[in-house]
Write a structure and sequence with these properties.
heterodimer, A: alpha+beta, 6-stranded antiparallel beta sheet, 3 helices, 29% helix, 28% strand, globular, B: alpha+beta, Elastase, domain 1, Neutral Protease, domain 2, 6-stranded mixed beta sheet, 65 strands, 16% helix, disordered N terminus
Chain lengths: 149, 1100
């Protein structure tokens, strides 16, 4: 006769393990994942660089030449939408590498390599058409977030 | 734009000259058999108004449109609406109301309007002198006029378009709660606080025709909402007419202003700046409001200015309202006092910077031509928070308010001087903002900033926070290290080429490596004095440097400027050389007095001409007769011997390969054809899609580019090897072009450059002007569509030919010189005065001149030798002919010897049928040295061998020697995979006598040659056994004695590097030189441990 095993005691353990496995990884500025979007500007009088980093899990970081901080997270769905749009842009093979005294940039790191678009910053006219939608999505993400500095 | 200002003042009676030469021309035509033409062919499609240059209009500065508060309500950002070709408008006779209804219906979705019912009211219908109809109408909602929401429907030759703005329909109550008389009372009480009230006499009422207050109920857009309001206009006294807007539901006074202009004009005000200093600033009053506009400077153009939103020649400070310059408003005051301190600082400092350039360098403003200087305060980061920066946009000087490490940046004169100098650089050398040229751009900005704020050598010292910049400055010319020891330290910059940053960050280190020329300037200025140094540097910037200049060019430019201003070999000349030596920038200097030129490379030269095409030249011309079936003729260059090439109607001038073997064109059926030229011409179809409007072929015939008939901002490129199309969307570069470029509608004329990598094009642009009529103009750009290095499509990067076109001016139809890839000719059109000209431009020197004035668009084309251009003219009897005018040696100035060449024809193309190299095959190293050693050492170049003998000292490190060299223009030099930068890149030459370091020089055409560098130590441990070397006689006749102890080998090379003799010796040898011809040779002698070279002369 086989021993009578009670498997019900394992359920809470498995449930906890499941829940922990569902919790996405959290990153710090020093451990950014290889897939991310960096955007911001650089140059001007100071030559400084101000960057924002958007991760797929919705984490947002701010980094300037002098300080860095993590901003309020956005919904994962919102972040996914931006990644989807930028991957579509990559497919179009759109190139933009125009520098100004102050230069805006968006860099998409797809896990293997980075794809960068640059255009002059601080202009009265909006971003180039091909980038307008993505740029708006990215700016919306940082628009209301105090970077704490 | 640098086009000479007197361009329109020259009077040229070209039609009269044509009239004088009428008879001989017809005689010539008949004699050589080209069929007579008695009637003019109907204009082909290219002349249709939709895409012709002459349908262009201009309106005031687009910035004026940004200075209102309607942006948030506007239904569409680009308020230019071209109606579809299928529009019902032209099909039937309609009245103005019907036309507007149809037009609005067709763009309703673009406008974002929900309903058209009662949405507009016709205000005026006008037909102008060109036959265009203009129907002006304003937006209505619920029976009320929406203040300022107005559009105009334009009609011409069956085409319609609209401009202006309508606002989104408001979702508000239209219930008027305030009585009309109560609103008037509120207004009177309000205005009583602002102005004097008195009753006008009967005589005054008669003179002013004032019938009492005017009160209307309107919808008033303000602060991004629309408010039901009373509009009240009244005269409280004789001198003023006030307008007042009162909320019709709450009674709040929404806005008021004095409409009268009796006190308008420049004012002064005293306010405190960011540093707590009381400053007197110049302001401008208009209709009772004062603006931060300085209209008192010598450059101010009162007649051209439209105050306050379009001042010309003013110093103007505006407010970005804590945005990333997404919108700007006037800085204004109702009483000309209490001005914001940030505005006071920016405005005051801009005035100092203007006066500095004017008084020290006789420069009239940033553009050198009295252009308005605009400062923008309260600029934020993209997230709306404080910005630790200031920047130049191409037209605006923008100041952040600081955040972490900076105070408001408008508070520093050197920041203003820095930003304004970026504008001066843009309008002079236009140094490319990348690598060394970009670092020089930054350096010039720092240098002249320091000359304006000349009490120290520091940058940003008034605005940095010392906890982040311990020295109290962002940068220092006197010590670019600025208290740091590496790039990890804030404010650190390299001082010498030994510390040069060669990474990719910061556009190749433009803010980093600027420390090197900054330090050179400091050393120079502290030797000769700031007064001389600033004049020398301004001359170098404005006269000698060009877009792609490198550090070596800066040295040469500064030394040459010293010679120009103070003579060859003087103290200034020597101080300049010493300063650049000290930072490790070496060159073969101009002049030579005072101890000779330096050691190092020559300057970079990209003004390289092509070999003249060796083939026979011809002219292709498009026939203007409707009775002659032939459309395209080949003729001699004197307009004889016409041969038919095609009978197909064409949309545009055909484009021909450099060897003249074939051309491509778009037919009026909108398909692309290939045309094999010559005595047996033939046509084949390249693209049967009936969508094309123009097509051109690259000079080498390897690819073509095309545009479609649609309003399409793309150029499509087809590579004949790859057999696929690549789309390149056109855009207007914002930095280089400033705000005056708008959106690209479509390109028109196209031409490949000689490398096949770039296309120069003209494009129609429109600028949305929410405050008035949209601006519409043509300009010229150059786009990179192919990469020869990658054998693939290019990056699509665009540059503009001119950064700022004057209002009312368009340029188009660009074409390259036949032998000078850096020379262009193009059409210049002044739309207001209806003047036309062909302009020549040297892209490298940024100089332009007039080739010829004309009465119409010219479609210029260079001759085989670039000694003339051909272009289109129209006779007094409206016939189209091709004319010719000679060119001066600089190829950009005409000779005034205009003459008609081919009658009844247009779109002339001058082409030749020979083969030549279109890209440079030059790949020489012409100078090689180690100027950083003491003493400097020059190499001897023998063919592809370069010999360098270095006197070894204990400090000479052969593992990290930095060579300066000069290589052919457009070539790239590599050692293994590392691109070599002259004066920067270090290499290990330790084993080079036996294993030479290989410098691979890649020419523009892709060919490669390898130079072998052998660096010997001639006075160190390795040289001991060569100390006794004696070579004699030199010159020798029949024999040469090599006297050397021990075993050795010898080789004799000619100066092309070919080995002629070789052998072994032991304790000396006699070499028979009878076998070689008289001349110079290189003798290379090697022992087991060392080698050396000697230059010998054989004389038989």
């Amino acid at each position: 006769m086989k021993p009578n095993k009670n498997y019900f005691g394992l359920i809470p353990v498995l449930l906890m393990a499941f829940l922990f496995s569902c919790k996405g990884q959290t990153y710090t500025m020093d451990t950014l994942p290889s897939k991310r979007i960096e955007f911001g500007n650089e140059g001007g009088f100071t030559g400084g660089r101000t960057s924002y980093f958007l991760l797929e899990n919705g984490q947002v970081f701010s980094k300037s030449t002098l300080v860095q901080t993590e901003l309020e997270k956005v919904k994962k769905k919102e972040a996914k939408k931006v990644f989807k749009e930028i991957e579509k842009l990559v497919q179009t093979k759109f190139e933009l590498n125009e520098t100004g005294n102050l230069t805006n940039f968006i860099v998409y790191y797809n896990g293997v390599e980075g794809k960068e678009w640059k255009w002059p910053g601080g202009q009265l006219k909006p971003a180039p058409d091909a980038l307008a939608e993505i740029n708006k999505l990215l700016l919306d993400i940082i628009q209301t977030k105090n970077d704490g500095n | 734009m640098a086009i000479k200002s007197n361009i329109m003042s020259r009077i040229f009676l070209f039609s009269f000259l044509i009239f004088l030469s009428w008879e001989p021309l017809f005689a010539q035509k008949d004699a050589y058999g080209k069929p007579s033409k008695s009637q003019v062919r109907k204009f082909p499609k290219t002349y249709s108004p939709a895409k012709s240059h002459d349908a262009i209009r201009f309106e005031p500065n687009p910035l004026s449109g940004k200075l209102n508060d309607l942006n948030g309500l506007q239904t569409k950002s680009a308020s230019y609406y071209l109606l579809p070709k299928t529009s019902a408008l032209p099909k039937t006779a309609l009245d103005a109301n019907q036309k507007v209804s149809i037009a609005l219906e067709e763009v309703k979705e673009d406008l974002g309007l929900k309903s058209l019912e009662g949405s507009f009211k016709i205000k005026s219908v006008e037909k102008d002198e060109l036959g265009m109809n203009h129907i002006r109408f304003n937006q209505q909602f619920g029976g009320f006029e929406i203040w300022g929401a107005e559009m105009i429907l334009h009609e011409r030759n069956g085409l319609q378009f609209m401009n202006g703005k309508f606002l989104a329909e408001p979702n508000i109550s239209l219930d008027v709660k305030l009585k009309k008389e109560d609103a008037l009372l509120i207004c009177q009480n309000y205005l009583a606080q602002k102005t004097e009230f008195r009753n006008l006499t009967a005589q005054e009422l008669a003179i002013t025709q004032y019938a009492g207050p005017k009160v209307e109920t309107i919808l008033y857009p303000i602060n991004n909402k629309i408010v039901l309001a009373y509009f009240i206009e009244m005269k409280p006294n004789l001198l003023s007419t006030w307008r007042c807007f009162v909320d019709a539901q709450t009674g709040e006074v929404l806005n008021s202003y004095n409409q009268a202009c009796t006190v308008d004009g420049p004012k002064t005000a005293t306010s405190t700046d960011l540093n707590g200093i009381s400053r007197t600033i110049n302001t401008y009053e208009k209709s009772g409001t004062t603006f931060m506009i300085d209209a008192t400077r010598s450059m101010f153009n009162a007649s051209a200015s439209k105050m306050p939103d379009d001042p010309i020649g003013a110093i103007w400070t505006i407010d970005a309202q804590n945005t990333y310059v997404q919108s700007v408003v006037q800085v204004s005051s109702s009483n000309n006092s209490n001005w914001p301190s940030k505005g006071v600082s920016a405005h005051f400092n801009a005035g100092i910077a203007f006066e500095y350039y004017k008084n020290t360098h006789s420069r009239n403003s940033i553009n050198g031509n009295g252009g308005t200087i605009i400062s923008v305060i309260n600029v934020s980061e993209q997230n709306g928070q404080g910005m630790d920066n200031a920047f130049w946009t191409g037209e605006l000087m923008c100041y952040g308010n600081g955040k972490v490490a900076f105070k408001p940046l408008a508070g520093s004169l050197d920041v203003a001087g820095h930003e304004m100098t970026h504008g001066v650089v843009q309008n002079t050398a236009n140094l490319e903002y990348q690598g060394q040229s970009g670092a020089m751009n930054e350096s010039m900005a720092d240098i002249f900033a320091c000359m304006m704020d000349r009490d120290d050598w520091l940058l940003g010292d008034d605005v940095v926070k010392t906890q982040y910049f311990p020295t109290g400055a962002l940068r220092s010319l006197s010590d670019p290290h600025n208290g740091g020891s590496s790039l990890n330290d804030n404010g650190y910059q390299p001082r010498t080429m030994g510390e040069y940053y060669s990474g990719t960050q910061d556009n190749g280190g433009v803010h980093i490596n600027s420390g090197i020329p900054n330090w050179a300037f400091y050393k120079f200025a502290t030797t000769v004095g700031k007064e001389k140094a600033e004049l020398v540097y301004y001359r170098a910037l404005s006269k000698y440097l060009s877009k792609t200049s490198q550090f070596v060019d800066l040295r040469i430019a500064v030394v040459q400027s010293c010679i120009d201003l103070y003579g060859d070999g003087g103290a200034e000349y020597n101080a300049a050389k010493s300063a650049f030596n000290a930072v490790g920038i070496y060159a073969t200097d101009p002049g030579g007095g005072g101890g000779g030129g330096g050691t190092g490379g020559g300057g970079t030269n990209t003004s390289i001409d092509l070999q003249v095409n060796p083939g026979q030249d011809y002219i292709l011309s498009y026939d203007d007769s409707f009775i002659d079936p032939v459309t395209l003729y080949q003729s001699s260059t004197t307009g004889t011997n016409y041969k038919s090439q095609s009978s197909r109607s064409m949309n545009r001038r055909p484009s021909v390969t450099d060897d003249g073997s074939f051309g491509v064109f778009v037919g009026t059926d909108n398909k692309i054809y290939k045309l094999n030229l010559g005595s047996n011409p033939s046509e084949t179809l390249l693209s049967g899609d009936a969508i094309w409007d123009n097509a051109v072929v690259s000079k080498d015939g390897k690819r073509m580019a095309a545009i479609t008939t649609s309003i399409d901002s793309a150029i499509y490129v087809f590579d004949f090897d790859k057999q696929n199309w690549q789309e390149f969307k056109l855009y207007n570069p914002t930095y280089s072009a400033g705000i005056n470029t708008g959106s690209v509608l479509y390109a028109d004329a196209l031409e490949f450059d000689y490398t096949g990598e770039k296309i120069i094009y003209d494009a129609r642009n429109v600028i949305s002007n929410p405050g008035g009529t949209d601006l519409d103009f043509w300009d010229i750009g150059m786009i990179e569509v192919w990469s020869n290095a990658n054998s693939n499509y290019g990056s699509g990067k665009i540059e503009k030919l001119y950064t700022q076109l004057p209002q009312d001016v368009s340029i188009g139809n660009p074409t390259f010189a036949k032998n000078s890839p850096y020379i262009l000719a193009f059409d210049y059109i002044d739309n207001v005065n209806n003047k036309f000209a062909v302009i020549g431009k040297n892209i490298n020197s940024n100089v332009d001149d007039i080739i010829v004035l004309n009465d119409q668009i010219s479609y210029p084309n260079f001759s085989k030798y670039d000694d003339a251009i051909i272009y289109d003219v129209v006779t007094t009897t409206n016939q189209k002919w091709i004319a010719k005018v000679g060119l001066e040696a600089n190829k950009i100035k005409g000779k005034s010897d205009e003459a008609v060449l081919i009658p009844d024809a247009y779109w002339g193309t001058w082409y030749s049928t020979g083969k030549r190299n279109l890209t440079s095959s030059a790949k020489q190293i012409t100078a090689f040295s180690f100027p950083g050693l003491t003493p400097p050492v020059e190499g001897v170049i023998v063919g592809t061998n370069i010999y360098v003998n270095i006197l070894t000292t204990s400090t000479t490190d052969f593992t990290e020697l930095v060579a300066s060299f000069t290589s052919s223009a457009f070539s790239v030099v590599k050692v293994d995979t590392t691109t070599q930068i002259s004066g920067v890149t270090k290499n290990n030459f330790t084993n080079s006598p036996t294993v030479p370091v290989q410098y691979q020089v890649r020419a523009q055409d892709g060919s490669v040659i390898t130079y072998y560098i052998k660096v010997n130590s001639v006075n160190g441990v390795l040289e001991n056994n060569l100390e006794s070397l004696n070579v004699f006689p030199n010159p020798s006749k029949e024999s040469l004695h090599i006297d050397l102890k021990g075993d050795f080998t010898y080789k004799v090379f000619d100066l092309q590097g070919k080995q002629l003799l070789s052998g072994n010796g032991s304790d000396g040898i006699v070499v028979n030189t009878n076998e070689i011809e008289s001349g110079y040779y290189i003798l290379e002698i090697a022992t087991e441990t060392s080698s050396t070279t000697r230059k010998i002369l054989v004389q038989h």
